[in-house]
Write a structure and sequence with these properties.
Distance between the termini: 59 Å
Shape: elongated
Number of domains: 2
Number of strands: 9
Structural class: alpha+beta
Length: 213
């Protein structure tokens, strides 16, 4: 039973194989013990060398956002995942979408798909905040403003030449619920457009919300 106490201590923060093996060093073969716990569905391997303990209440209590931050980094949750988290678009749960400065990557795991898209290092740190929904789990996520900039930046072929086009994109393409949020931080839009990528589109986004104020 010593093991269950250790696993409980770990919580649902992803844990490296070497740490896990050290926690299980009182077993003759920590490697076999890890394999057994995987079979018993007490542990999930999210990628080579990285595991997450399944709490007594099951998979639903594991924060996919927390895992997304640990699985591949530096990264923050963004795009549809952030907009959905901020209750600005109808919920989509099939994948957790993040932004990174490293190359794009996609992981298929038992906890769903984790998708990472690439942005430039100077643009990356704008408009990120720490979210702590339960005061235990903390993860990095885009503000609603940054998530919208990321959507525009990472959608190929998107042309927004006017504020009217922005309005159509937000309301019809994204189904964004603008009534959910009253105060938009236009400074974030300005900082994003100043990095010079998709300048036209982000300028129109800035103008759209500026007129909203």
């Amino acid at each position: 039973m010593g093991m269950m106490i250790n696993l409980a201590k770990v919580g649902t923060t992803p844990i490296e194989y070497t740490t896990l093996a050290a926690l299980l060093s009182h077993y003759k073969s920590p490697k076999d013990k890890i394999a057994t716990l995987e079979k018993q569905k007490q542990l999930i391997r999210v990628k080579k060398g990285l595991y997450v303990a399944v709490p007594g209440e099951g998979l639903a209590t594991i924060s996919r956002e927390l895992i997304a931050n640990h699985l591949y980094g530096p990264s923050y949750i963004s795009l549809e995942s952030a907009l959905s988290y901020h209750k600005l678009i109808p919920e989509r749960v099939y994948s957790v979408r993040s932004v990174t400065t490293k190359r794009a990557k996609k992981y298929h795991t038992q906890l769903g798909i984790f998708d990472y898209r690439t942005v430039k290092p100077d643009y990356f740190p704008i408009g990120i905040e720490l979210q702590s929904p339960d005061n235990m789990t903390t993860f990095l996520m885009a503000t609603p403003e940054k998530a919208l900039c990321d959507m525009i930046l990472l959608s190929s072929g998107l042309r927004l030449q006017s504020t009217k086009a922005v309005n159509t994109y937000l309301e019809e393409d994204l189904r964004l619920d603008l009534s959910e949020k009253q105060n938009w931080n236009t400074q974030t839009f300005r900082e994003c457009l100043e990095t010079g990528r998709k300048k036209t589109e982000l300028t129109q986004l800035f103008n759209y919300f500026k007129s909203y104020e």
